[in-house]
C-alpha cells in the first residue's frame, strides 16, 4: 500500500461525487438493510475503485454508497473483507483508510457474531466495549506503516466512550435491549469447536466473530473515533451445541437489523 494508491482511490470517488462524508459505516454479514435509509445515494462498485479488493462472500454485495442519513453525509461499505476470503490485513482495512482520506470523522461498524456469554441470546444486540484479537496478525505490521501514522498505537480504549454512552442512552429511550461485552475475532471460516468455545469463555469473550478487529485497529491508528455493535445470531453453548445453520444465522441477522439501524440513525442525528 502506498499513499499514491490511496490518492487514486480517493480521487476516483470524489470525481463520482463522494464529497466530504462525515461518517463511515461498515455493514456486517446479513446486515445490508441500512442502505435503504440512504437518501440521494451514489454508488461505486468495489471492482471499479482503483486498488480496492473485491468482496467474495455471497451475503456481501461489494459497493461503497454515499448519501445522506439524518441530514448528515455518510459513506457506507455494503460488503466487507475477511481473512478467510484469502485477503491480508492491508486489503481488509484499505477501505477504512480511503474513507478517512475522504474526510469521515467517525466510524460505525456492525457484525454478526455468536454469543459466548450464555446470558446473551440470539436476536439481541451487543455493544462492543473491548476486543480480543485472535486473528494472528495486525494491519499495522508492514514496513512503511510510519508513513501513515505512529507504528505503536495505544489500544487502552479502542471503542469511543462518548459514542458508547450515547448509543446506550438511545437504546434506553427507544426501548431496545442491548448487552455490552467483549468481542473475540478469529480467522474462520469454520466455526468453533466445543473446546474452542470453552477457551473463548475462559479468555473473557462475550461474543465471537471473524471481522471488525482489523478495522478497529486501523481506525485507532488514524485516531478515528469508532463505535461497533454485534448482532448476535447464534448461541455458543458447548454443552448443548447444535450444528451451524448459516441460513438461520442470516435470517436472524435480517430480523434483528432494524433495531441496529434505529440505533445508528439516532446516533448519526445526535453527533
TrEMBL record:
Its EC number is 2.4.2.1. Gene3D superfamilies: Nucleoside phosphorylase domain. Pathway: Purine metabolism; purine nucleoside salvage. GO terms for cellular component: cytoplasm. It comes from the Bacteria. Keywords: Glycosyltransferase, Transferase. One of its GO terms (molecular function) is purine-nucleoside phosphorylase activity. Pfam families: PNP_UDP_1. Residues 23-269 form the Nucleoside phosphorylase domain. GO terms for biological process: nucleoside metabolic process. The purine nucleoside phosphorylases catalyze the phosphorolytic breakdown of the N-glycosidic bond in the beta-(deoxy)ribonucleoside molecules, with the formation of the corresponding free purine bases and pentose-1-phosphate. Belongs to the PNP/MTAP phosphorylase family. This is Purine nucleoside phosphorylase. The gene is punA.
Amino acid at each position: 500500500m502506498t499513499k499514491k494508491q490511496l490518492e487514486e482511490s480517493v480521487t476516483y470517488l470524489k470525481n463520482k461525487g463522494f464529497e466530504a462524508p462525515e461518517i463511515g459505516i461498515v455493514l456486517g454479514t446479513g446486515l445490508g438493510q441500512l442502505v435503504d435509509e440512504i437518501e440521494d445515494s451514489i454508488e461505486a462498485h468495489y471492482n471499479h475503485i482503483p486498488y480496492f479488493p473485491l468482496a467474495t462472500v455471497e451475503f456481501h454485495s461489494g459497493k461503497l454508497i454515499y448519501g445522506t442519513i439524518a441530514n448528515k453525509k455518510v459513506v457506507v461499505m455494503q460488503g466487507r473483507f475477511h481473512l478467510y476470503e484469502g485477503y491480508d490485513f492491508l486489503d481488509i482495512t484499505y477501505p477504512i483508510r480511503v474513507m478517512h482520506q475522504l474526510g469521515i470523522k467517525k466510524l460505525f461498524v456492525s457484525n454478526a457474531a455468536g454469543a459466548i456469554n450464555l446470558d446473551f441470546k440470539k436476536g439481541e444486540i451487543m455493544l462492543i466495549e473491548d476486543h480480543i484479537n485472535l486473528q494472528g496478525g495486525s494491519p499495522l505490521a508492514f514496513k512503511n506503516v510510519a508513513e501513515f501514522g505512529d507504528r505503536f498505537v495505544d489500544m487502552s480504549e479502542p471503542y469511543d466512550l462518548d459514542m458508547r454512552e450515547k448509543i446506550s442512552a438511545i437504546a434506553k429511550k427507544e426501548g431496545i435491549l442491548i448487552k455490552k461485552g467483549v468481542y473475540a475475532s478469529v480467522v474462520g471460516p469454520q466455526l468453533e469447536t466445543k473446546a474452542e468455545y470453552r477457551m473463548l469463555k475462559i479468555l473473557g469473550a462475550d461474543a465471537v466473530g471473524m471481522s471488525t478487529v482489523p478495522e478497529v485497529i486501523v481506525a485507532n491508528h488514524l485516531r478515528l473515533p469508532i463505535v461497533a455493535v454485534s448482532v448476535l445470531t447464534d448461541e455458543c453453548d458447548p454443552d448443548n451445541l447444535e450444528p451451524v445453520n448459516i441460513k438461520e444465522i442470516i435470517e436472524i441477522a435480517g430480523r434483528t437489523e432494524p433495531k441496529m439501524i434505529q440505533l445508528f440513525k439516532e446516533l448519526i442525528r445526535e453527533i
